[in-house]
Inverse folding.
């Protein structure tokens, strides 16, 4: 049997290690964050749908919705106040009630089927932003799908804000490139009750490039793009053969600062002697004609 050679390279090893470190970082962050497991901290509230199973007495098995007053209605037993109880506390309470009235030793299973009292919320660049009632078994992709999918104005990342019962909040950032294009399952994290998913909206940034460039005029970028002098000139088709190496950037007044003109040397930037300058909304890049 012939063997297929396995080729290793420093680049492949580095890429593998980088991916592994990123995956471990996400997992550690999820584990370290209060409430990043669904059972931790969740308390039953109005409109939640609860499934109850009693193994010794199937006649008590039921699905029931918590009333606005925070109670559920059970066969034979009647109304039981459950508002604010964790699933463990609710299980213990039902077991106690059943053993006092009906069963010598009760085995009770309680599961919250719909987390309607603390819905997740999706805001930002999605088709249907707002609260979503869900079953508690969603991933990030399923939550975004339930919100109608991403809007065309979405950015490159999505933020998940988790709010714990003790008032603390934690946030992780997920790359939409990794989630949607690469399809990395490690970033398709579970979504739990009371989570807030924020898909930041990209804004249009307009830069004006005038003078000795091939296509002078307004240039429109996304706010998530890296907007620099070189990218603006490239977007304008490059310099003409009559262009001067000195370029003037006119910047309007902002936040109390005075309007100013910044002169840079194009060839110094190309050669690496000077840094490529970042541009801001409304900047005007003027490439003058050379007379030499």
């Amino acid at each position: 049997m012939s063997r297929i050679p396995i080729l290793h390279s420093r680049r492949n090893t580095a890429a593998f290690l980088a991916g592994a470190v990123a995956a471990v970082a996400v997992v550690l962050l999820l584990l370290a964050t209060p409430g990043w497991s669904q059972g931790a901290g969740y308390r039953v509230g109005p409109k939640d749908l609860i499934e109850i199973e009693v193994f010794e007495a199937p006649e008590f098995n039921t699905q029931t919705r918590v009333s606005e007053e925070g109670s559920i209605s059970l066969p034979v037993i009647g109304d039981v106040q459950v508002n604010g109880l964790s699933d463990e506390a609710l299980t213990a309470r039902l077991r106690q009630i059943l053993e006092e009235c009906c069963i010598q030793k009760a085995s009770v299973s309680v599961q919250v089927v719909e987390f309607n009292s603390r819905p997740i919320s999706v805001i930002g660049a999605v088709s249907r932003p707002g609260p979503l009632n869900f079953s508690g078994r969603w991933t990030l992709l399923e939550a975004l799908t339930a919100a109608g999918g991403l809007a065309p104005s979405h950015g490159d990342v999505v933020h998940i804000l988790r709010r714990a019962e003790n008032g603390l909040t934690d946030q992780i950032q997920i790359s939409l490139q990794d989630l949607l294009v690469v399809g990395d399952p490690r970033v398709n994290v579970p979504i739990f009750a009371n989570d807030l998913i924020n898909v930041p909206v990209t804004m249009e940034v307009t830069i004006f490039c005038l003078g000795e460039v091939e296509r002078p005029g307004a240039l429109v970028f996304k706010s998530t793009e890296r907007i620099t002098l070189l990218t603006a000139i490239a977007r304008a088709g490059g310099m003409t053969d009559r262009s001067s190496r000195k370029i003037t950037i006119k910047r309007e007044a902002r936040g109390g600062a005075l309007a100013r003109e910044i002169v840079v040397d194009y060839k110094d930037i190309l050669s690496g002697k000077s840094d490529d300058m970042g541009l801001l909304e409304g900047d005007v890049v003027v490439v003058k004609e050379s007379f030499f």
Observations:
- The domain at 49-114 is CATH 3.30.1950.10 (wza like fold).
- The two ends are 72 Å apart (CA to CA).
- The longest strand covers residues 243-251.
